[in-house]
Specification:
The structure is a homodimer of 351-residue chains.
Chain A (H helix, E strand, L loop, with lengths): L9 H8 L3 H8 L9 H14 L5 H8 L4 E6 L7 H14 L3 E6 L4 H13 L4 E4 L7 H8 L4 E4 L9 E5 L1 H14 L5 E5 L5 H16 L9 E3 L5 H13 L6 E4 L2 H13 L9 E3 L16 E3 L2 H17 L7 E4 L2 E3 L12 H5 L1
Parallel strand pairs in A: 1-2, 1-3, 3-4, 4-5, 5-11, 6-7, 6-8, 8-9
Antiparallel strand pairs in A: 10-12
Chain A binds a DNA duplex (30 and 30 nucleotides) through α2 and α4.
Chain lengths: 351, 351
DNA sequence: TCATTCTGTGCAATCGTTTGCACAATGATC
DNA sequence: GATCATTGTGCAAACGATTGCACAGAATGA
């Protein structure tokens, strides 16, 4: 058993060399190192090395009021959409010596509020939010408190805030146009929660894209969900099928909803893509391996994370840097869940 | 534009009430609150509330030398095995007001070392490592520095260290016994890296289980990989097939390797499970949706995370709490990738 | 040679809390 | 009514770093 090993402080290094702690501090800070005689610099550096000195970030943080850490809030790390984003964030932060502190909110406003409070208590220098609602008071609070914030994946109506999102309108347009190219005209949409920018934008884009393709978007074929989950996708698609309305394809607002649609189609004794083509959104890991492999819209998740982190770092350097919404380009990935339309009378036949 | 809004300190609260800062501190700390007159307690509390006082964790951390945060090191958050574990860790930590600081190491010793150093500089109170190697000098360092550490998922040979792992031997035994029950006798094993406890234990367990089932484990049918990845699974299975040896089933050391085996089987013009049955390990999210749905060993990932966090919290309270290895029970999940043996001459036929 | 500018280092205050100790005020005891 | 615990609060020193300011001593110029 060893003793708790006394921490070596800047003072220990100073004593060891025979200089004042402030001198050591200046040597250790690259920005002020130039002000110290190189002979002393060398001595201090080697003493620090010898004693295995590690700066105490807590003390630094207290004095400088900067923690070099940022809070990253996501709905649920268990949702495969987020890990790549987080990884991108972390990698970009690490390059500048910053650390990410993670928080899951489960899309609950209350937990979101808690999480932000926790982060702020921990003196994070800024926040990256993947949790923003369209009109989010929490985001507004941060802005008015001048806490640097960048939104990722979702955007918000709160003005003056930077965001890094995917071009959802383009993605949906790609999906619709792909389906039309396969001969589909009666296309249903499983929409995500309308309180989330992604859900709302994609739904709106669906109508737009249908119109642009000269197709009729029937309101009865657009069903809204309460969450981006497999269960809700199952529910929505079952409803769609049960309604007896005619459709040969489903554009789902994300991959999870699409997987739910798979189940509903299966439950109804139908086949995908034989009876119903399905498109997803996000190209989550492993959706290329499900049966059938999912045709979906790939969004650059890792890059989104990186970009968001870079924007935040920039904001930390230059607090008045103007807000900017970055949108990244998605890509249609055609796989096995979509096929040329065969039987347009699906729904009628079933009745 | 608002001004940066001056921070409310304990001193502001004290002045507002007309007491000394130390009194406020005592009121705010539930443990010492009892020492203060209840009338003052009330006044302080309402003043704190009114002024929206938030304790500065950094200052607290400096003074108390406890950050109420713990470092969580994992190989790669993008690997579906880890999110549930992380979630479990976070949830358990949050219950006690602790925060998790995440780090990805990509299984690189150097990054691992860096990450630990970063964590320690940030004054984490303890570490949860999902990255441990069998004989890990980093882990040993932590132990000798008396930094509380708990290993999760993997264990280590370093003595005196707590770990929460799955009962891998039992899991492999379940897989082998399941396959034997389906008539398989020539069973191959795609082993994970032998420097990782999971890879090594599962391999050893494979031999043990085969022996117990009175089956012959041929060394030529056990191939080792350099990483737990789809690519390595593909490589290993291709090698196995190319060798011309007879086998009708593969026990893969984890799901990713199993998915790689799927590809190899497909590439060789064979079918799973028709020609080769495959079992995975971990029951990662969505492997129930791949084609064919993977028969695998489910390990209680979320619970593993929770349990590891709880152990660590206990260790923080009672530093001399004796080390203990907790093993959780896995469960065989039978799905579509395993079936009764049909053609025992697979390999021979192919030559 | 002396006044003046530079340069490099030391001094001490500060960041926001916590906590051992001192010490008034109160109540109990004889 | 003096003595002694007891209780509640204040005081001040930490924790480990950073940084504005002061000030020696060297370098420069007249």
């Amino acid at each position: 058993m060893q003793s708790p090993r006394p921490r070596v402080t800047i003072r220990d290094v100073a004593d060891h060399v025979g200089v004042h702690p402030s001198t050591v501090s200046r040597v250790l800070n690259p920005a002020t190192r130039g002000r110290i005689t190189s002979k002393i610099v060398k001595k201090v550096l080697s003493a620090a090395d010898e004693l295995d000195y590690r700066p105490n970030k807590t003390a630094q943080g207290l004095r400088t009021n900067r923690s070099r850490s940022v809070g990253v809030l996501i709905p649920d790390i268990t949702n495969p959409l987020f890990p790549p984003i987080i990884r991108g964030v972390e990698d970009a932060l690490a390059e500048e010596g910053y650390t990410a502190v993670l928080g899951n909110t489960d899309n609950l406003a209350e937990r979101e509020r808690d999480a932000v409070a926790t982060m702020r208590a921990r003196q994070v220098d800024g926040l990256i939010l993947a949790t923003a609602r369209k009109d989010d008071p929490i985001v507004a609070d941060c802005v008015s408190d001048r806490l640097p914030v960048v939104l990722v994946n979702r955007s918000s109506d709160v003005p003056g805030i930077s965001s890094v999102v995917n071009d959802d309108a383009l993605g949906i347009a790609q999906a619709v146009s792909h389906l039309k190219g396969l001969g589909h005209s009666r296309i249903a949409h499983i929409a995500g929660p309308q309180a989330l920018s992604t859900g709302e934008v994609r739904r709106r884009s669906f109508y737009d894209a249908m119109a642009r393709e000269d197709l009729i978007a029937e309101d009865d074929l657009v069903v809204e969900t309460r969450a981006f989950s497999v269960d809700e996708g199952l529910r929505a698609a079952s409803e769609l099928i049960a309604s007896g309305r005619i459709f040969t394809a489903i554009v789902a607002s994300n991959d999870l909803l699409a997987l739910g649609a798979y189940e509903a189609i299966d439950d109804a004794g139908l086949a995908c893509p034989g009876d119903v083509s399905v498109t997803g959104f996000n190209d989550m890991p492993f959706v290329d391996r499900v049966a059938p492999p999912l045709t979906t819209i790939r969004i650059p998740q890792y890059e989104m994370g990186r970009e968001a982190a870079r924007r935040l770092l920039q904001l930390l350097e230059t607090p008045d840097f103007p807000a900017h919404a970055t949108t990244l380009q998605p890509e249609l990935i055609v796989r096995g869940s979509t096929t040329r339309v065969r039987n347009v009378n699906l729904a009628i036949n079933r009745n």
